[in-house]
Design brief:
The protein is α/β, with parallel strands linked by helices and 256 residues long. The protein has a single domain (2-202), classed as 2-enoyl-CoA Hydratase, Chain A, domain 1 (Alpha-Beta Complex), CATH 3.90.226. The chain contains 11 helices and 11 strands. The strands form 2 sheets. It has a 7-stranded mixed sheet, sandwiched between helices. It has a 4-stranded mixed sheet with strand order 5-7-9-10. Strand 1 and strand 2 (7-12) form a beta hairpin. Helix 1 (31-46) packs parallel to helix 3. The protein is globular and about 50 Å long. The structure holds octanoyl-coenzyme A. Residues 25-26, 28, 65-70, 72, 83-84, 87, 109, 111-113, 135-136, 139, 141, 143-145 line the site of octanoyl-coenzyme A.
């Protein structure tokens, strides 16, 4: 096992387990985590002993509770655009297009950027106590790591609109019914079940898996991703965003 800058990596039986380790911040994604996730993905892509990946969060409370709000609270439009662009290109798109199966083991809150991370993965196993949602509009924002695009692909336009516009958190039963997750697992078995899912994939031909991922991804249009970056970054220059983030930090409801 090795740990580098908030990412713990364990490789066993051809499966790499990546654990995001910022437990006190509910594993919120800061730039350091995203940079190291990007480098780790590049390394594992080249490692012939690794045939599938699992991504999870440290502890039993959160998978990932979103992008790190404290880190982006003072950004302007241009900086917000760059942040979304770098994240999309270096992590989220890389995961979606990874040539080996990537399974999200959703072991608690998967919110905002955390749910975007889970839905960029190829398959999702979630523990019974997990909660999934896109609270960005409550912060005066929208999802900026591909969530406005990938969510509708998974659960359909109507359900995606309801989830993002209401910002409601879903339990796993509802999430499974919508197709947002593939499997529900007992909390204590989540990694066992994620590994079983990975094993079910890697008994198959690696070349065929890579081709299947490529072709399935090709069938979805990508033109909305650019609009997401533009709209997301414009919101950084609004009073609503300032109020939304301040309200979160002051642990109160925003007043729009
Ligand atoms: N960012 C930074 N810190 C966080 C985050 C986060 N997303 N989530 C939780 N934390 C911190 C809290 O501030 C708190 O820190 P402290 O102890 O210093 O006050 C600690 O984690 C524990 O959290 P809580 O005390 O709030 O724990 P609760 O059990 O009371 O509540 C919740 C748990 C419901 C998960 C609550 O923490 C919460 O609502 N978190 C924020 C969820 C959220 O809004 N996520 C979306 C963020 S926006 C986003 O992801 C945009 C994605 C696109 C970005 C693209 C480029 C930037």
């Amino acid at each position: 096992m090795k740990q580098e800058n908030n990412i713990q990596i364990e490789i066993e039986n051809n499966i790499a387990l990546l654990t995001i380790c910022r437990e006190k911040q509910l594993n919120a994604l800061n730039q350091s985590v995203l940079n190291h996730l990007s480098i780790t993905l590049d390394d594992l892509a080249e490692d012939p002993t690794v045939r599938a990946l699992i991504i999870t969060g440290k502890g039993d409370k959160a998978f990932v509770a979103g992008a790190d709000i404290k880190e982006f609270q003072h950004l302007n439009t241009q900086e917000g655009y760059e942040l979304a662009k770098n994240g999309q290109e270096n992590v989220f798109d890389k995961i979606e297009n990874f040539s080996k199966p990537i399974i999200a083991a959703v072991n608690g809150y998967a919110l905002g950027g955390g749910l975007e991370l889970a839905i960029a993965c190829h398959i999702r196993v979630a523990s019974k106590s997990a909660k999934l949602g896109f609270p960005e509009c409550s912060l005066g924002l929208i999802p900026g790591y591909g969530g406005t695009q990938r969510l509708g692909q998974l659960i359909g336009k109507g359900n995606a609109l309801e989830m993002i516009l209401t910002g409601s958190m879903l339990n796993v039963e509802k999430s499974e019914k919508l197709g947002l997750i593939n499997k529900i697992s007992d909390d204590k078995n989540i990694l066992v079940d994620a590994k079983k899912m990975a094993q079910a994939c890697i008994k198959n031909s690696p070349k065929a898996l890579a081709s299947a991922i490529k072709c399935i991804n090709k069938s979805f249009h990508k033109k909305g991703f650019e609009s997401e970056k533009t709209e997301f970054s414009k919101l950084f220059n609004t009073d609503d965003f300032k109020e939304g983030v301040l309200a979160f930090l002051e642990k109160r409801r925003p007043n729009y």
